[in-house]
Automatic annotation (TrEMBL):
Domain of life: Bacteria
Location of the GST C-terminal domain: 82-204
Domain spans labelled GST N-terminal: 1-78
GO molecular function: transferase activity
The species this protein was found in: Sulfuricaulis limicola
GO CC annotations, alphabetized: cytoplasm
PROSITE patterns xref list: GST_CTER, GST_NTER
Protein name: Glutathione S-transferase
Keyword Transferase: yes
Length: 204
């Protein structure tokens, strides 16, 4: 198996962390989806990373599908197979992916020439991020994990989204949500997070 993606993409990082957590035999191939000679459009018609190239020569995308596939290869499951805990984890993944979408959309908008930027779009994305931070902070218990009594895909994806927010939309959310900041420090100290930290992303 080969995982194609960039070093900075948080969607790719979700899969890279899972590969490291479960010690799976999967080669990481650095590929830039935006480059003119990118191999990505031939692997995924959407032209996006991550893409997982399977041993049968077919490919899988996007990140929720890839992490579910990789997780199913080896126990213990980070995504519970059934029941309420499964839906709880999937809800966290949807929230985290939506946060990433908002941070990416805001970043791309902010990189447009200033005269062409939409203040309304920037504000809408920032509101989504603020509401998501509130949502996580409100539901976070006193323990180290979001769902059940162990590290799951929920912790993985939410921590990736929070670290990516710090990376691409740095602002002081910690003074409003100090417990969330402490929780993130705990998860992001895991070797899988340290080893996949994008170049230029500082440890908070
Ligand atoms: N929903 C997708 C999002 C993937 C995505 O947007 N990846 C970005 C990199 S961060 C990309 O490849 N963008 C290239 C493009 O949009 O053309 C997933 O979860 O995999």
């Amino acid at each position: 198996m080969k995982l194609y993606g960039s070093l900075t993409s948080p969607y790719v990082r979700k899969a890279r962390i899972l590969v490291r957590e479960k010690d799976l035999p999967c080669e990481f191939v650095v590929a830039d989806a935006w480059a003119a000679d990118s191999p990505v459009p031939a692997l995924n018609p959407l032209g996006k990373v991550p893409v997982l190239a399977l041993d049968n020569n077919d490919t899988l995308f996007d990140s929720p599908v890839i992490v579910e596939y990789l997780d199913a290869l080896k126990a213990p499951a980070l995504l519970p197979a059934s029941g309420e805990t499964r839906w709880n984890v999937l809800r966290w993944e949807a929230l985290a992916d939506g946060m990433l979408d908002a941070v990416v959309t805001r970043l791309l908008e902010s990189r447009r020439p200033e005269a062409q930027q939409s203040a309304d779009n920037l504000r809408r994305q920032e509101e989504k991020i603020a509401r998501s931070l509130e949502y996580v902070a409100r539901r976070l218990g006193s323990g180290p994990w979001l769902v059940s009594d162990r590290f799951t895909l929920a912790d993985l994806v939410v921590a990736v989204a929070l670290e990516y927010t710090d990376f691409r939309y740095p602002h002081d959310w910690r003074s409003r949500h100090p417990r969330l900041g402490q929780w993130l420090a705990g998860v992001s100290a895991r070797p899988s997070f340290i080893e996949t930290r994008p170049p230029g992303m500082e440890k908070k």
